[in-house]
Amino acid sequence: MIESASFTLCGTPEYLAPEIINLTGHGVAADWWAFGVLLYELLLGSPPFVASDPMDLYQLILKSIFSLTVVSPTGTSLSKPARDLLSRLLVANPTARLGSSQRGGRDVSGHDFFKSVDFSALQRKALPAPYVPLISSAYDTANFEQ
Predict the structure, then answer these.
(1) Are 17 and 25 in contact (CB under 8 A)?
(2) pTM for this one?
(3) pLDDT band for position 74 (50/70/90)?
(4) What are the angstrom distances between the C-alpha of 22 and each of 8, 33, 125?
(5) Cβ proximity of 97 and 91 under 8 Å
(6) Partners of 26 in the beta sheet?
(7) What is the distance, to the nearest Å, from the Cα of residue 27 to the centroid of all Cα atoms in its chain?
(8) Are 39 and 72 in contact (CB under 8 A)?
C-alpha cells in the first residue's frame, strides 16, 4: 500500500488523472478519476477525453475538457445524478475529487447515483446477475464478436 504518493507513470492514456500526467505524485484520488472515466464510458459508449494525438489527449485531460451533455449513440442522455457524479469525479484538483476525503469510497457509494444499489447485498454476492448469457456448451463462442 502506498503511504504518501506514487510517481509511476503507467496506465491507459484515456484514464490517466491530471496529477499522473503532471508527475506531481498521485494517490487514491487518481483511482477515483479512473473510475469516473470508466463510468462515463459505460454510460455513454466512449471515454470523456478523445484525441488522435496523445499530447492533445493529455491537454484535454489536464484542462478537464469534456461534455456532460453528450447523448449516447442509443439516444439516451445522462440523468441528473449521473451528471453530478461524473462532474465530481472528473475534477482536475485531486483534493477536491469525490472519494478523496476522509470518508473515501463512502462518499462515492452514498451518492444519489447509487441510491438503488444495495452494497451490502452486492458484497455478500446475494444479487442476481443483471445478464446471464445463454451458452450451449463449454466451447460455445456465440456470445463473442467475430
Answers:
(1) no
(2) 0.81
(3) low
(4) 11, 14, 39
(5) yes
(6) 6
(7) 16
(8) no
Please count the other Cβ atoms lying within 10 Å of the Cβ belonging to residue 38: 15
- Sequence-separated (6 or more) residues with CB below 8 Å from residue 64: 18, 90, 91, 92
Contact between 36 and 68 under an 8 Å Cβ cutoff? The reply is no
Q: Tell me: the pLDDT tens digits for 12-61?
A: 889 999 998 877 777 889 999 999 999 999 998 889 999 999 999 999 99
Give 146's contacts (C-beta < 8 A, 6+ positions apart): none
Instruction: For residue 26, give the 3-state DSSP assignment.
Output: strand
Instruction: Classify residue 129 by its DSSP letter.
Output: P
> Strand, helix or coil at 82?
helix
CA nearest to 88, candidates 97, 75, 79, 101: 97
Specify the length of the chain in residues: 146
Exposure string of 103-140, with b = 16+ CB inside 10 Å and e = fewer, is eeeebbeebebeeeeeeeeeeeeeeeeeeeeeeeeeee
Neighbours of 83 (CB within 10 A): 15
C-alpha cell at 24: 506531481
Domains of the chain, earliest start first = 13-123 (1.10.510.10)
